[in-house]
């Protein structure tokens, strides 16, 4: 059971890094630092979008419109950190 919890924690940590990479990539695209016409940039963007958008879309539906500010990745990161803390504090000590 502890191995399964370790895999879940690892998957959550990888998803945190994917969310951060997606946010940074969106800033780079928004400020025209990277060109979306480049095939490598477009492939990375599509990969990150495909992995993060299914989790961010429900949060964006609930949040009010804040103009050009998107805080859904921050809220998702806080939720992931909360789940990680729950696993560390309540599930790890109770698993043999």
Task: Write up this protein.
There is one protein chain. This protein has 96 residues and is mostly helical. The protein has one domain (2-91). The chain contains 3 helices and no strands. The chain has helices at residues 2-30, 39-62, 72-91. The mean pLDDT is 95.
Quick tags:
96 residues, 3 helices, mainly alpha
Structure annotation, total helices: 3
What is the average per-residue confidence, as pLDDT, rounded to a whole number? 95
Assess the beta-strand content as a share of residues.
under 5%
Low-confidence stretches: none
Question: What structural category characterises the helix and strand content?
Answer: mainly alpha
What fraction, in percent, of the residue positions are helical?
over 70%
SSE order: HHH
Number of domains: 1
Distance N to C terminus: 8 Å
Compact summary:
The chain is mainly alpha-helical and 96 residues long. The chain has one domain (2-91).
SSE blueprint and pairings:
Blueprint (H helix, E strand, L loop, with lengths): L1 H29 L8 H24 L9 H20 L5
């Amino acid at each position: 059971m502890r191995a399964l919890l370790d895999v879940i924690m690892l998957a959550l940590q990888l998803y945190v890094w994917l969310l951060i990479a997606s946010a940074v990539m969106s800033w780079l695209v928004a400020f025209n630092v990277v060109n979306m016409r480049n095939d490598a940039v477009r492939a990375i963007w599509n990969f990150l979008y495909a992995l993060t958008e299914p989790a961010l879309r429900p949060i964006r539906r609930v949040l009010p419109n804040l103009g050009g500010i998107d805080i859904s990745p921050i809220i998702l990161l806080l939720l992931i950190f909360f789940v990680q803390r729950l696993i560390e504090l309540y599930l790890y000590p109770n698993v043999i």
